[in-house]
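sry for the spam today, last one i promise. struct tokens for design, 456 residues
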């Protein structure tokens, strides 16, 4: 099986605005995570048994709240709306057509928009940048969805200018574990992952009905439910369900593409797929796959092999319904042209383990939680649990700390209030999305507990 390292490849679809089109329109997407830095895909199993271990530290700690000043308007614009205008509007508004909001200089582009009143900070939906798309200005697809993408970027622009608060543990009342290794080391401890591999988690994609997201047996996927359409749909059929996601390609080279799919028969086994500016291809996954299986993306019923020549930039991927009933969980781009589908593992997920004996003396307990990279902005934590050899451990108010800091948005596990026993150590059945701080190469996790009381 081939190991994976979480990469800059998995993204939410605001990043789709950085695709290869150059018209003055944005691509499909949704709100991205609200981050004030630039940083760099999720899976179901940990085939290599990776572990990011830590141990208990001290008997307790407290916290302080700090405020981080928002970015300037130009800085925020450069990270959000400017990315759209540079990618979509450069042919006209990057050279001769006023306002020149697609020029390379962020200050000049920012001033062109603000001084011409093309953005409305008080009512972003009324921004001319947004309204022009709703009016059909050069839309390459669904104008309403294009306008929503632009609106999302304006909302992000506004958010990044706002002050934010974080809580930092400093030593007081809570019990805090030591830090894990960096997430990059947790997910790929031997540094053996191929830098040309980009795993995309389709749960992080944007879907257009009747394409929907669902899960079964811990596997997240997209599909058009079986029975939605009786006919095979052409790649330009307006009623087809669609999904959009962006691959952030790291190097200029040739790539092959694989998908983790579940097909149920020859009449429910195909998608149309479009990579960047390439034409649609007709991908047949091979009838009944007998569960989830990695399958190479090919073209046509004859399954002609495909190679994509991709540049080091963001490329939008569209999955379009051809036949309903087929499920797609992940995509993998690789520059290893000799790779075969049976060499592919489940993807980058690992279990972090923290010893709790220093925090709950005599318990010999361990706290474990699974971690994966959800997209280019965030991680996903799941299955938090306590391994307790004997006795009972009272656990309350679990908080994840990224580089020692707690973000109040990461509150899913704060409701934990449980007496853990050797036979019942699960703390929550919910997953939690965690915003990245500095990226996988730098971010480390620790966890705080309001109460850790051990009874032999």
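last one done:
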């Amino acid at each position: 099986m081939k190991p994976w390292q979480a990469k800059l490849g998995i993204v939410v679809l605001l990043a789709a605005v950085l695709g290869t089109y150059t018209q003055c329109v944005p691509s499909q997407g949704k709100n991205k995570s609200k981050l004030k830095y630039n940083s760099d895909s999720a899976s179901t199993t940990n085939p290599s048994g990776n572990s990011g271990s830590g141990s208990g530290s001290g008997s307790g700690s407290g916290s302080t709240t700090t405020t981080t000043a928002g970015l300037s308007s130009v800085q925020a614009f450069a990270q959000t709306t400017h990315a759209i205008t540079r990618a979509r509007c450069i042919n006209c508004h990057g050279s001769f057509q006023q306002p020149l909001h697609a020029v390379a200089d962020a200050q000049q582009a920012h001033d062109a928009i603000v001084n011409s009143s093309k953005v409305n900070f008080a009512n972003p939906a009324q921004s001319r940048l947004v309204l022009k798309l709703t009016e059909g200005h050069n839309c390459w697809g669904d104008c309403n969805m294009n306008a929503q993408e632009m609106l999302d970027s304006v909302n992000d622009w506004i958010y990044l200018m706002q002050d934010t608060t974080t809580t930092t543990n400093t030593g007081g009342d809570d019990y805090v574990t030591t830090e894990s290794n960096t997430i990059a080391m947790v997910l790929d401890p031997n540094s053996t992952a191929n830098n040309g591999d980009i795993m995309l988690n389709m749960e992080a994609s944007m879907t257009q009905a009747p394409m929907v997201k669902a899960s079964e047996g811990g596997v997240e996927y997209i599909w058009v439910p079986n029975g939605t359409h009786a006919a095979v749909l052409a790649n330009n059929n307006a009623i087809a369900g669609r999904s959009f996601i962006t691959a952030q390609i790291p190097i200029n080279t040739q790539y092959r593409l694989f998908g983790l799919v579940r097909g149920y028969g020859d009449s429910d086994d195909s998608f149309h797929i479009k990579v960047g500016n390439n034409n649609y291809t007709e991908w047949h996954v091979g009838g009944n796959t007998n569960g989830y299986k990695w399958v190479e993306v090919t073209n046509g019923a004859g399954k002609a092999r495909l190679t994509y020549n991709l540049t080091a930039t963001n490329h939008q991927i569209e999955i379009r319904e051809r036949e309903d009933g087929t499920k797609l969980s992940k995509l993998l781009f690789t520059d290893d042209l000799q790779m075969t589908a049976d060499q592919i593992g489940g993807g980058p997920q690992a279990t972090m383990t923290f010893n709790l004996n220093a925090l709950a003396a005599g318990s010999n307990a361990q706290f474990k939680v699974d971690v994966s990279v959800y997209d280019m902005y965030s991680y996903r934590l799941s299955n938090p649990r306590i391994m307790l050899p004997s006795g009972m451990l009272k656990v309350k108010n679990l908080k994840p700390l990224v580089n020692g800091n707690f973000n109040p948005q990461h509150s899913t596990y704060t409701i934990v209030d449980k007496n853990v026993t050797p036979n019942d150590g699960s703390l929550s059945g919910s997953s939690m999305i965690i915003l990245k701080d500095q990226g996988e190469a730098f971010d480390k996790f620790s966890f705080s507990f309001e109460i850790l009381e051990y009874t032999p």
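The longest helix spans residues 143-160. ok im logging off now
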